[in-house]
Amino acid sequence: AQTVTQSQPEMSVQEAETVTLSCTYDTSESNYYLFWYKQPPSRQMILVIRQEAYKQQNATENRFSVNFQKAAKSFSLKISDSQLGDTAMYFCAFMYNSGGSNYKLTFGKGTLLTVNP
Amino acid sequence: DAGITQSPRYKITETGRQVTLMCHQTWSHSYMFWYRQDLGHGLRLIYYSAAADITDKGEVPDGYVVSRSKTENFPLTLESATRSQTSVYFCASSEPYNEQFFGPGTRLTVL
Fold this sequence. Notes:
By secondary structure, chain A is an all-beta fold. Helix content of chain A is about 0%, strand content about 55%.
């Protein structure tokens, strides 16, 4: 079974600073995908960034970037120049296809990030 | 409206009643999913569907029933609601190997 672990239930950061959220996963698969989703107080789930396991280059989306360490099974999210609107719950998620239609996401339990003014 | 919608957004019901949560997507995505979100558990998959008339169990399927007669709709039914099913329910859709797009969620309270 695939598992996703987010070891930091809560974090806080000052506005304009940089923060890194941790995520580790356990799998025997070689071909998979990793995601970070953001859930603000509105409750809407929003995709932040995506990484394909076969790509060595770390994904980047504006102020958001990942540090993908495949051998260590680690997928951390770095948020630069933190903004008040980044305050949200962040979920790490793992996806693979074990054949046929068996394809789904497994989520970590989330990290609540608070950006302080 | 384009996207994925859920109805109702809020629902209060009583133990033992049948409840159906609706999910509709306009992208013609082949995959659709139902999750529940509970404090301390993150999101857990209830059921998913790879196409019309193809459904499969997820991590926590007990007490739930799904159907998918049309690609765009994926209703979730609680046949006899229990207090432990009080939760926020999210529907999502996607194409294979792509990110899932989530609906706004339904907050269900079972008294």
